[in-house]
Amino acid sequence: MKVEKRQLQFDQKLEEMGMRIKDADQLKVKEDVFDEITLLALYRLVHKKWLSAIGGSISTGKEANIFFGERGNLNVAIKIYRIRTANFNAMSEYIVGDRRFSNVKKNRKDLVFAWTKKEFSNLSRAQEVGIPVPEPLVWDRNILLMSFLGEGERPYPQLRLAKIMDPESVYKQLIECIDTLYNKAELVHADLSEFNILYGDRLYLIDMGQSVTRDHPNALRYLMRDIKNINRYFRTRCAIQEDIKIFSKITHLDTIEP
Predict the structure, then answer these.
(1) What is the crossing angle of helices 219-234 and 243-251, to 10°?
(2) Residues 83, 34: contact at Cβ < 8 Å?
(3) How far apart are CA 86 and CA 101, in angstroms?
(4) How far apart are CA 151 and CA 244, in angstroms?
(5) Are residues 12 and 116 in the same domain?
(6) How far apart are CA 48 and CA 60, in angstroms?
(7) Nearest alpha carbon to residue 203 among 238, 171, 246, 237
(8) 84 to each of 37, 106, 112, 145, how far by Cα in Å?
(9) What are phi and psi of 195, to 5 degrees?
(10) Domain range enclosing 227
(11) Half-sphere exposure of 97 (CA within 13 A, CB side)
(12) What backbone phi and psi angles, to 5 degrees, belong to 136?
């Protein structure tokens, strides 16, 4: 009964904002997601006409939940970073050393806000150089709105779950993406794997909140880790290049300092 009452109160709050609720039975109240700060950010996005409807959950990650949404006739993805349960230490590793966020206060709320802004910025830089990523639309506090990648209301599958007819071609595209990201966008994804790549009409890199600039103290280490992850996944699926050869071609360095 308490859960149903809380669900009703939550639905009423969203409706008061002017937001239409889709698939209400799938939109379960999660106290660690829809807190007062998140509801306020949602209200601001609805008020500014960025959102008109919210639907069911698309995915639940370590730090964020993603929901299906609508902006008029446009399908969007609503990424909400959880403030109460965010892994402060894990996030700090990627924020500290990033010159763009050197003034961030060391508390959980401000770190999550900075992280959301950071992902928006990283996606924008990647998109500018032609990397296939979800289009970043707007961010507010701990909420990031992006274009929805999928067919109808069904998201594209992660690479690990997709049926790929030509894995060698996909592998080459990914190595090219890593190169372009590093040399043109001056970014390193820093968590690239078969879990953070979607595959539909083409491949897409996602989850770029942790991505760092090329001058980050750990950028080269993260770059090598990305290369190793992609090689690990494709090793039994097609011919691959050696880790160090890819690394050297991208960075023009022969080795990486431990």
Answers:
(1) 140
(2) no
(3) 18
(4) 38
(5) yes
(6) 26
(7) 171
(8) 11, 15, 10, 20
(9) -85, -25
(10) 155-251
(11) 14
(12) -75, 130
Residue 127 lies in a domain: yes
Residue 62 lies in a domain: yes
- Averaged pLDDT in 10-residue chunks for the chain of 258 residues: 58 72 61 80 92 89 91 95 81 81 77 93 98 98 97 94 96 98 98 97 95 95 98 97 97 73
| Choice among 11, 35, 191, 243 that is catalytic | 191
CATH number at residue 225: 1.10.510.10
User: At which of 151, 185, 200 does a domain end?
Assistant: 151
The residue annotated as part of the active site, out of 207, 215, 243, 254, is 207
Cβ(169)–Cβ(209) below 8 Å: no
Contact between 109 and 62 (Cβ < 8 Å): no
Closest CA to 154 of 22, 56, 60, 19: 56
Q: Among this protein's residues, is 207 annotated catalytic?
A: yes
Q: State the pLDDT at residue 91.
A: 81
Q: Name residue 242's beta-bridge partners.
A: none
Distance between CA 26 and CA 218 in Å, rounded?
40
What are the residue ranges of helices labelled H in the chain?
A: 2-16, 36-47, 88-95, 108-128, 167-183, 219-234, 243-251
Based on the fold, state whether residues 120 and 220 are members of the same structural domain. no
Quick one: 90 exposed, middle or buried, by C-beta within 10 A (0-12, 13-18, 19+)? exposed
Query: pTM of the prediction?
Result: 0.89
Beta partners for residue 71, in sequence order: 74
